[in-house]
Specification:
The complex is a heterodimer of chains A (282) and B (250). By secondary structure, chain A is mostly helical. Chain A contains 11 helices and no strands. Chain A has a domain at 79-268: Orthogonal Bundle (MetI-like fold). Helix content of chain A is 78%, strand content 0%. Chain B has 250 residues and is α/β, with parallel strands linked by helices. Chain B has a domain at 2-81 and 155-247: Rossmann fold. Chain B contains 8 helices and 10 strands. A 6-stranded mixed beta sheet of chain B has the order 6-7-8-3-9-10, sandwiched between helices. Chain B has a 4-stranded antiparallel beta sheet with strand order 2-1-4-5, with helices on one face. In chain B, helix 4 (110-123) crosses helix 5 (139-151). The longest helix of chain B is centred in the last third of the chain and has 18 residues, at 169-186. Chain B is globular and about 55 Å long. Chain B starts with a strand and ends with a helix. In chain B, 45% of the residues are buried. Classes of the chains: A mainly alpha (282), B alpha/beta (250). The interface between A and B is large, with 30 and 42 residues.
């Protein structure tokens, strides 16, 4: 030891993790206040017959309708089918976007060859593919999954390429000075540097996946939450439509929360504004 | 020994630039030999090519003309013999202090990596922070981590590009003394770029004053004052004034 250090900073472990968990669950609870108040107002308005029930049934009625569907087992089947479609479409779209993004991000030649075409395809509104897909693959699963995959693809591809190209040149120089192999450069520098942008892309892609599954199910399906909505419309049951809406919201939020939790874990090294805000509020 | 012979550097495409009459000669005809264990500093105003010269010596950039050799072998790219410290710490924010230092050792067996990392981090006085992330470090601690990363390989040459310029003057002086102590123990050959003249005088055996457009070595000054050198000693002050005059800041 040549010089005794006088600089001191708090290490993360020194802050109580239990306290932190309590803070985060408290802030989650705050997020529930507005929906609960809205539901209460809605329920009161419906009971007072301020809005006709054939347009907007009370929340209690929506819940009753949903639990009736759940008891018959029908609801779970619809949910499972929709979740499966999103999952497969997301996997296909994210897989293709990751592969192509990694290729065009890391090779100038491939970027110059492929990127203009991909950007041009992006300009086609995704729903415009529907007629072609139906013609090619029929109205069954393939065309639905493909439509979802297309919707998922672009945000992930764009964010990944932006992330790769935005990697700090100075850090890459450090890798050169340290004599990192190509593999270590990718593993220890490029992937972590790209991760924030890539995860943003995954979350945006997943949100679009949920959007496109509705489009896919509205265009013709015999199962799924989108079908349930059409069914509710045809049979004049607004409670079913609203119930499906709520289920979509819950499913979208839950899947996004999973990705968000993964992001937080993977990006705990970040020194962002959100984090300082969190600790100040605590 | 580091030998730089007749090195010139032109940025951009030389042919195209010459045609447009826009040739930017960052360096022109620079000769410099740094002996073993020597401490040489390059001083000069910004844009005089001193950082470019250091980058060429490290192998990060290649000269347009001339050659660079380390102990007789031509430099064609970065090598483990040369440690480099930049103006910014340049730590990977996603790696702890330990893993940042490990970057310089990835081709060695794991056990040896761990032993060397612990030692290098101990040397810069950061053992308590070995598992901290860069965001938890002060500027001085981050730069010390960068020094540990540069020295963990026990290089024969240490190149530093304005390593302390972003630090407050107290931390800067402390790190200068610290670096000197490490040098006294390991005796690597050290070349550093600075625009802090007092820093150059208090650390170097030899000071090269550079001037720009194109970048050339304007003057060479040997510092014969014995170490440790007090910053307030009259001979240190006199030399400082001489160099400031040579920089021609007017």
């Amino acid at each position: 030891m040549l010089v005794e250090t006088v600089e001191r900073r708090a290490l993360p472990g020194w802050r109580g993790t239990a306290a932190k968990a309590a803070v985060s669950s408290a802030s989650h609870l705050k997020g529930l206040i507005v929906p609960l108040v809205l539901a209460a107002v809605w329920e009161i308005a419906a009971r007072a017959e301020a809005i006709p029930a054939y347009l907007l049934p009370a929340p209690s009625e929506v819940l009753a309708e949903l639990s009736a569907l759940a008891e018959g087992g029908e609801l779970w089947e619809h949910i499972a089918v929709t979740v499966w479609r999103v999952a497969v479409g997301f996997a296909v779209g994210a897989g293709a976007a990751t592969l192509l993004g990694a290729l065009t991000g890391s090779s100038r030649l491939l970027r110059e060859l492929l990127d203009p075409t991909i950007q041009a395809l992006k300009a086609v509104p995704s729903l415009a593919w529907v007629p072609l897909f139906i013609l090619w693959f029929g109205i069954f699963e393939t065309s639905k999954v493909l439509l979802i995959a297309i919707g998922v693809f672009f945000p992930i591809y764009l964010n990944l390429v932006t992330g790769i190209l935005g990697t700090d040149r100075k850090l890459v120089e450090v890798a050169r000075v340290c004599g990192l192999s190509r593999f270590d450069l990718v593993r220890r520098v490029l992937i972590p540097a790209t991760l924030p942008s890539y995860l943003t892309g995954l979350r945006a892609g997943l949100a679009l996946g949920w959007m496109f599954v509705i489009a896919a199910e509205l265009m013709g399906a015999s199962k799924g939450l989108g079908f349930l909505m059409i069914d509710g419309q045809m049979t004049g049951r607004p409670a079913v439509i609203i119930g499906a809406l709520i289920l979509f919201a819950l499913a979208g939020k839950a899947s996004d929360a999973l990705l968000e939790a993964a992001s937080k874990r993977l990006l705990s090294w970040q020194d962002g504004f959100g984090e300082t805000q969190e600790t100040r509020n605590a | 020994m580091l030998e730089i012979s007749d090195v010139g550097k032109v940025f951009g495409d030389p042919a195209a630039a010459a045609q447009a009459g826009l040739v930017h000669h960052a360096l022109d005809g620079v000769d410099l030999t740094v002996g073993q264990h020597e401490i040489v500093s390059l001083v000069g105003t910004s844009g005089c090519g001193k950082s470019t010269l250091l980058r060429i010596a490290s192998g990060l950039d290649l000269p347009t003309t001339g050659r660079v050799a380390l102990d007789g072998r031509a430099v064609t790219g970065p090598t483990p013999e040369v440690g480099m410290v930049f103006q910014e710490p340049r730590l990977m924010p996603w790696l702890t202090v330990r893993e940042n230092v490990r970057l310089a050792l990835l081709d060695l067996p794991k056990a040896e990596q761990d032993a060397r990392i612990a030692e290098a981090i101990e040397d810069v006085g950061l053992s308590k922070f070995i598992d901290a992330y860069p965001r938890q470090l002060s500027g001085g601690m981050a730069q010390r981590t960068a020094i540990a990363r540069a020295l963990v390989r026990q290089p024969s040459f240490l190149l530093l590009d304005e390593p302390f310029s972003a630090l407050d003057s107290f931390t800067r002086q402390k790190l200068q003394q610290h670096l000197l102590a490490l040098w006294e123990r390991s005796r690597f050959t050290m070349v550093f770029v600075t625009h802090d003249v007092l820093e150059a005088v208090s650390l170097s055996d030899r000071i090269l004053v550079m001037r720009g457009h194109p970048g050339r070595i304007h003057r060479e000054i040997r510092v014969e004052i014995p170490r440790p050198r007090a910053r307030t000693a009259p001979e240190v002050r006199a030399l400082e004034e001489e160099i400031v005059a040579a920089l021609d800041l007017s």
